[in-house]
Design brief:
The chain is of the alpha+beta class and about 150 residues long. About 30% of the residues lie in helices and about 30% in strands. It has a single domain, classed as 3-Layer(aba) Sandwich (Aminopeptidase). It binds coenzyme A.
Length: about 150
Amino acid sequence: MLNAVVPWPFPADGALTHVRDTALPQIERGEAWDWTLRLKEEPERIIGRIGLYLGQNNRGFWMGLPWQGRGLMTEAVIAVTDYWFEVLSFPVLRAPKAVENVGSRRISEKTGMRVVETKDGEYVSGILPTEVWEITAEEWRAWRAVNPVVTK
Ligand SMILES: CC(C)(COP(=O)(O)OP(=O)(O)OC[C@H]1O[C@@H](n2cnc3c(N)ncnc32)[C@H](O)[C@@H]1OP(=O)(O)O)[C@@H](O)C(=O)NCCC(=O)NCCS
């Protein structure tokens, strides 16, 4: 259920070429803002990634399998969504995701987003029904006012 832009099977140099040829140039052009995710007790090890992007898909993320299901991506999503609205000052954030991507949808649902469109999307696993989730700056601030999250 990763976006079809991700090459699959993932090549041995896939991370290097993606960061060097796509992610860093996008960041330099001011079209993307990207973070690696690391545990405080093991800061050298990258366990996941989250990014914000101009265009139709404003936020993307993945978490390594051993670290899934601990609430870590929810924590990261809240931090970078604050950044999208409060530092970058965009009026709205939209994120398409496969309907069957339960974990990703749950994160959107838990953080005050709503579905504004359904369509097909292209993923590594093929064409899948997709929902576009959205939240406005005003809605985000209202949600944050009653969800003063403290990071672990
Ligand atoms: C989606 C993904 C980032 C979630 O990361 P995570 O760190 O496991 O997320 P969290 O622990 O914060 O969990 C978020 C919620 O989803 C639920 N959830 C997570 N994975 C789930 C699964 N496979 N099935 C059902 N629920 C799931 C959690 O229980 C939690 O809900 P809750 O608070 O009500 O219990 C992770 O599964 C992943 O990297 N998937 C592969 C890449 C991907 O799909 N990226 C998103 C593309 S749109």
